[in-house]
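Predict fold of Glutathione S-transferase omega; 240 aa.
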Amino acid sequence: MTSKAKPNPKHLVQGDPIPPLKKGVPRLFSFRFCPFAHRSRLVLAAKNVDYELVNISLSKKPEWYKTKNPFGTTPCFEHDEKIVRDSSIVCEYVNDAYPGVNLWPEDPYRKAQDKMLLDYFGSKISPPFFKATYHPPPSSTEDFLAVYQKELYVLEEELKKRGSAFFFGEKPGLVDFIMWPWFERWAVLGEDFHRENYPTLMGYCGRMKEDPAVIEAATPDEIYQNNFKKQMEGNPQDDY
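Predicted 3D structure, encoded as tokens:
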């Protein structure tokens, strides 16, 4: 597997034609700054799948995109006219459909534990992150960053309890790749985010950043920060 970041093509917008589907070559419709699409890019890289990346502007979507995904969201995975959408479903599909290492535990109970952790992450940890950063509720006075930091202790303690380098084990698995995009976006959290309070997670982040799939799907911190600044100014920018 390459250890270089995968090139990011320009985002397609209204008026742009649909790219022709190359027979036998899967493609992922993605938005560079969408953490859900980021999940899929990580798993495709971990499974060493050769695919075409098609970036879609979510603020100025091409008219044809709803024929691929009627919800208009990313990711959307297409292979020989078979379409799979929703990030968790795409990740599981790619893991099951392509050869190579199985990114789920073989043991049914360990697999259930990973799925329960992901359920907790999706319901309790990622929502306050979004509300503290990209999507602050306009009339709320709740300190969502404080809520997020409190919930992070659940992950800190869970990784300690597992006693492994990654949540999956000694190598990253689906549980890691599905949560990782939010860790990579720590770059947009300000000085009130006290990452030093999570030494186990800090070590985990250092190890994840050395993983070839994470490197291939990565976006530099300064690009996240510039994109976040533009979005908060009401002038979001897709391409850098």
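The chain has a mean pLDDT of 94.
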